[in-house]
Amino acid sequence: MTWQTLVAQACELGESPFWHPHEQALYWVDIPGRQIHRCNVFMGTVESWAMPAEPGCIAPARSGGLVIALRDGIYRARNWGGALEKWVAAAHDPATTRFNDGKCDPLGRFWASTIYEPRDARQAALYCLDGSGQPPRLEEKTGDATVGNGLAWSPDSRTLYWSDTTAHVIRAWDWDAAGNQLQHGRVFCQFPAKPPGWQAGMPGYGGRPDGAAVDSEGNYYVAMFEGQRVLKLSPGGEVLAEIPTPVVCPTMVCFGGDDLQTLYLTTARHGRPAAELAAMPLSGAVFSMRVTVPGLPVNFFAD
User: Fold this and answer.
1) Is 210 labeled as catalytic in the residue annotation?
2) Whether the model pTM is above 0.90
3) CA–CA distance, 150 with 251 (Å, rounded to integer)
């Protein structure tokens, strides 16, 4: 199990990767770079699409194109590079808050977290957009977080995972898919806080939970930002494997390829120390690795 460099072209903060099975392409975003990227992994070619604001997360739509969470709302693009149609305005103040991690659930609803950028209060939340109604409706599902991240569902669609990166915690809820209700919220995994005075390169810190994905056996893979590792957690929250990463700040994983046995990883370089970037020039690149257990396919937005 070794990482290969898929795209050396560095993002400031790569996030929200997904494998598009119809296009055989990997999509991801660069949040501060205000770009959406897609890569033909067989040809090694990358296309980039500039956004008018930071794209927190994206998802493919069944009728084609993308759903895109920009800073101030949820947008729909019918094709690559096409017009952006604003569907729903954000419920938050875009001066202090933007959309962050998100994806579609197994029934085709689009979920998007927020990040409260001052990071001095727990004002981030998790929202769900149901596209079956007219107009589409954005509903807050849970909150009490600072940096919403790590959204994923179990293979049986009975458990929803969501993390607060700042609090170093991954939570889980029982999820009623048909009724779209969250119940029995609990701590799935709590990680130690960053030690006072810790700097990159020092021992004693394993990172904090960022983006995540679930495999077909229900194991939760989470990128540990500043921890230089991806963890594979069992459905019970036990650490099954620790996968070192080539850079200090992995951001999110997804499964792809025809057999869903390729693990893709986005990473970050934004705001990192100069010495770290000199030692790890591929910070911000996209990596891939073959795994033995396939993941779950991307969920498409139902519109």
Assistant:
1) yes
2) yes
3) 10
